[in-house]
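In this supplementary section we document a worked example of the pipeline. Step one takes a protein sequence of length 190 as its only input; no multiple sequence alignment statistics are reported here. Step two produces a three-dimensional model, which step three serialises into structure tokens for compact storage. The input and output of this example are shown verbatim.
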Amino acid sequence: MNQLKRKTKVKRKWKRSVNKVKKFRIGTRAMNLGMFIIGWFLVVGIAVMYVRGFGMKTIISNDSMVPTFQEDEVLKINRFIYKITSPKRMDTVAVRMGETKSNVYYVLRIIGLPGEKVQIQNGKIYVDDKEISYPVGEEPIEDAGIANDIVLLQDDEYFMLCDNYNNSSYDSRSANIGVIDKSQIEGRVK
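The serialised model returned by step three reads:
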């Protein structure tokens, strides 16, 4: 009889511990599901903040960047990159003109960096008296604009050209536009 009591006690203890484990498993599953849902919302929230805060899109409305970008092409602007690094020569960037906060941007290529001298002579681009090759277009630049004379760039000033430079003058050669301040650069275009 004693042995039977022991077996019964062991069975009862075992059943109680099994019930505790089952309750723990159910609680753990619910907690895991809750953590999964919270994690999913966090990922979606961060992605939305990234797209709204650091990335954006724009549409090319003219042929100033042909052949690199075509008219009506949708471009992505990385607004975050220049918060951690400086613009580099030959980067294509979206530039806000004037004091407006509108969504109208010029897409241009950086030629001259702060502290450099830029000049266009005989259809060729010179930076600090050294000829640089332009990555697009073989023909010489017909209209040097203000870069016919030496343009000395101050701190945070950039000299920019459009890729279709002989058919468009919406760039730093124009006296109406001139050099571009870093604060006008919205981001790098891809």
